[in-house]
Amino acid sequence: MKKLILMLFLIPTLLFAQSEGVKFEHRLNWSQIKEKAAKENKFIFVDCFTTWCGPCKYMSSTIFPQAKVGDFFNAKFINAKIQMDKTKNDNEDIKSWYEEADRFAKDYKVRAYPTFLIFDSKGTLVHRIVGGGEADDFIAKAQKSLDPNTQYETLLAKFNADPTNVNIAKSMAMAAKEAYDEETQAKAEGVVLASLTTDQIFTKENISLLLSAANVVDSKAFNLIKDNPAKFDAVSEKVKANDFLSQLLVSNAVNTKIRAKETVDFASIEKELAQKYPTVNTEKASLEMQPRYYGYTKNYPGLRDSFNKYIAKYGSTITAAELNNMAWSIFENCNDPACLKAAAEWSKLSNEKEKDAPMYLDTFANILYRLGEKEKAIKTQEKAISLITDATQKEEYVATLQKMKKGEKTWQ
After folding, report:
1. Cβ pair 3, 51 in contact under 8 A
2. Is 48 helix (H, G, I), strand (E, B) or coil?
3. Which CATH code, of 3.30.420.40, 3.30.70.660, 3.40.1380.10, 1.25.40.10, is assigned to 200-406?
4. Cα-Cα-Cα-Cα dihedral of 139, 162, 198, 176, to 10°?
5. Low-confidence residues of the chain, pLDDT below 50?
6. Which residues partner with 280 through β-bridges?
7. Is 80 helix (H, G, I), strand (E, B) or coil?
8. What is the mean pLDDT of the chain?
9. 17-146 CATH pick, 3.40.30.10, 1.10.10.60, 3.40.190.10, 3.10.180.10
10. Are 146 and 173 in contact (CB under 8 A)?
11. How far apart are CA 1 and CA 114, in angstroms?
């Protein structure tokens, strides 16, 4: 009886919580949604999602139910969802949208998920957002759809009509970057860079544009940074010229080898890059890339040895997050005691760099447990739990603790 009474109290609470978030239209077709938008003089917000997309699920479970998100979208938009994939569990409402989903993917170039399309009250596409985000940031992105000066599709039409206009190109480059339209972004950035002198390019105002355009090896922007490292470093606050160039060169070389299914020899790559780009020092970038590559190829002894070399030389610059990620990769995938002991050292170092961080303590506890140090693992996990404030995370960590106490595996 107590459980029944509790359920009776919970149901109104859940209904109330759901009513605070974004209200999505159901059992309406596209024509009916456009009619409703025209009648209420609202824009149309369409969430193009798939059942397998993690960020899509996060937006649905965490962002859209929030009151402030609901207040914004319900006031400005008629909101709809379109499932872009097909599953055996689809209901009749989802199936009725199959044909429309295929048309949306083709007509509006929906290639990544989640993609959010925004139409005006007449059903004309004016804006797109690719990828999710936290509530305030996502609201700010959607706010741009309400202003013709910041609407993506409106900017694109202006740019195509006047492709040499530098002011339009600047706005277009930033908008295209947010929309993951790499082709348009490259065109717009090229227009802007061509209009500037070298001194004008190397300013705080234009440094983000330069970095974005330089992501292609041997491009004009890439060479501008390579040939003017001092000017770049004088205005760049986030990254130094050598770090940017070396990381780009090494990752490009490694990815080229992977795509060609060739063996990756880091010593040979460094030698080749030194000959072609003698002013760029790639040693650190190479050492940083090696453990990632060995993790990708599931060579965990290689990951262990290369990451230890990286720590030995650049340990002071490594973040707690980097140490934790590498340690967790070993824990999840390798049962070799030597690898696990190395991972334990990395995890211990991450906890020294950032004390009392539940996530890092959890990693350390799991590695200790896999190494057979059960009592120490349990104490570490209990400490992690005592520091958690998020209920969902605490539940997950408690479940891990129970497995440790029962002697069950905490890894796959």
Report:
1. no
2. strand
3. 1.25.40.10
4. 30
5. 1-19
6. none
7. strand
8. 90
9. 3.40.30.10
10. no
11. 43
Alpha-carbon span 269 to 289, nearest angstrom: 12
Give me the pLDDT at residue 7, please.
37
Give the tens place of pLDDT for each residue, 31-73. 999 999 999 999 999 999 999 988 999 999 899 999 999 999 9
In degrees, to the nearest 5, what angle opens at C-alpha 109 toward C-alphas 106 and 112? 120
Q: What pTM does this model have?
A: 0.66
In angstroms, the CA 46 to CA 60 distance is 13
* CA distance to 1, 43, 44, 58, 341, per residue, from 65 (Å): 31, 20, 18, 11, 43
Reference 383, options 407, 369, 370, 364; nearest CA is: 364
Look at the alpha carbons of 210, 117, 107, 50 in this order and tell me if their dihedral is positive or negative.
positive
CA atoms of 165 and 195, how far apart (whole Å) = 10
How many residues are listed for the chain in this entry?
A: 412
Q: Report CA Rg, the chain.
A: 26
- CB-based contact 340:367 (threshold 8 Å): yes
Using CA atoms, how far apart are residues 163 and 136, in angstroms rounded to an integer? 33
Is the backbone of residue 45 left (phi > 0), alpha (psi -120 to 50) or beta? Answer: beta
Q: What tokens does 401 get?
A: 């603790």
Three-state secondary-structure class, residue 388: coil
